[in-house]
Structures are given as structure tokens and as C-alpha cells.
Amino acid sequence: MDFVSEFPLTPTKKHSIWVIVDQLTKFAHFIPVKTDYSLQKLVKLYVSETIFVPSDVDFTQSILWEVHSSPYAMHIGDIKMFYKLQKLYWWHRLKREVLDPELVARTKDNVRFIQDRLKASSDRQNSYAELKRKDIEFEVWDCVFLKVSPWKKAIRFCCKSKFSPRFIRPYQILRHVGLVAYQLELPLKLDYIDEVFHVSKLRSFLCGSSVEN
């Protein structure tokens, strides 16, 4: 292998020839180059200019068949999905970093910070809701609808349909019981039910509202 320089410039601005003689085949390669080429570029140029597969179809297929028939052969398609997943999910420093005490402490601090921020956000939303919330108050002899849950409707009020109303007929308020409860005037057929209900179970009855008899 040798370089012969000081030639006239070629159309591609090259003025030297890289002479390579294959010791096995005694075949010489003459490659036009520049004297300022780096070693990496010369290696790539050597591979591209001197190493080749013959264009004979039968010979090429025989080589490919021998390679793919080998028990150690591996096709890029077999591991292509693995490489894609590796880029997305694999972290080569994962094992060492997980065992790092500084990383554990930093993670705990981040979790604590996130929890504090979530609590502050929840408290702020609750404060806004409290400003708009008003305690519902009723007067004695007002008529109110009574809200019932599905199991109560089925057992106590004999309304077994899943399309039965959530509120039943209006009842009159007899008296206050504490700050948030009222005693209702229930019919005799419901005398086995406690007459005192929390305000959340009552809804105002307005003139013209639908009444469930």
C-alpha cells in the first residue's frame, strides 16, 4: 500500500492515488484520494472500493443460503422490534441509579412535593365550593319532596321498578329537629318509618311540580 501524489487535479479535486495490492490475489487497486483524508475516511473508502460481492446471481444466492442456513444465523427482522423497544423503554443506567440513595431521596422529595401540591389544589377548590354552598332551610308546614335510595324504595315504599322516581310525593314539615333535620308528616301506612330526615334528603316543593301519589 502506498500513496502517489503530485498529479494534476481531477474533476473531483483529487490529486493523489492510493495504491493497494492484495497479498492473496495480487490484485492492485488504484483509488483517487486527497492527501488530507482522515483515517476513518480512508477505511470507508477501502471497504467500498475493494470489498464486493460478485454480480453472479447463483453465486450470491449460494452465499445467502449458506449464511441463513447456519444455526447461528440471525436476521435483523428478528430483533428489529427489540431494538425499537430498547430505545423507548431501556435505560442502560437504570440498575445503578435505582440503588443510588440520592436518587431514592430525590424521588421521595418529588412525591412529597406532588402530594402537597395536590392537597393545596384540592383545598382551594373546596374553598371555592364553600363560598357558593348555601344551607337549605325550610319552615314548618312547608311541603317537601322526600328522596329515597333504591333499596329503600324496594323495601319500604314498594317501588320495585328501576325507573321509579328518586323523589316521592310532598310531605308537610311538622317541626325542626336540631339544625339540619326535620320531622315530616307521613301517612299511617308508613308509620314504621322514622319521621325525621336529614335536609339532604329533602327537596323544595314548588307549585306546579309533578307529584307522585
3D architecture notes:
- Pfam families: Integrase_H2C2, SH3_Tf2-1.
- Helices cover 38% and strands 19% of the residues.
- It contains six helices and eight strands.
- It has a five-stranded antiparallel sheet with strand order 7-6-5-4-8, with no helix packed on it.
- The radius of gyration is 44 Å and the shape is rod-shaped.
- 4% of the residues are buried.
Brief summary of the model shown:
The chain has 213 residues and is an alpha+beta fold. It has helices at residues 39-50, 57-69, 76-89, 94-98, 101-132, 150-155; strands at residues 2-4, 16-21, 28-33, 143-147, 167-177, 181-184, 196-198, 202-204. Strand 2 (16-21) and strand 3 (28-33) form a beta hairpin.
Class from helix and strand fractions: alpha+beta
Helix percent band: 25-40%
Largest sheet: 5 strands, antiparallel
The CA-CA distance between the termini, in Å, is: 109 Å
Q: Give the H and E element order.
A: EEEHHHHHEHEEEE
As a percent range, the share of strand residues is: 15-25%
Strand order within the widest beta sheet: 7-6-5-4-8
Number of beta-strand segments: 8
Instruction: Tell me the radius of gyration.
Output: 44 Å
The backbone outline, from C-alpha atoms, is: rod-shaped
Q: Mean of residue pLDDT?
A: 75
Pick out the low-confidence regions. 151-155
Please, how many helices?
6
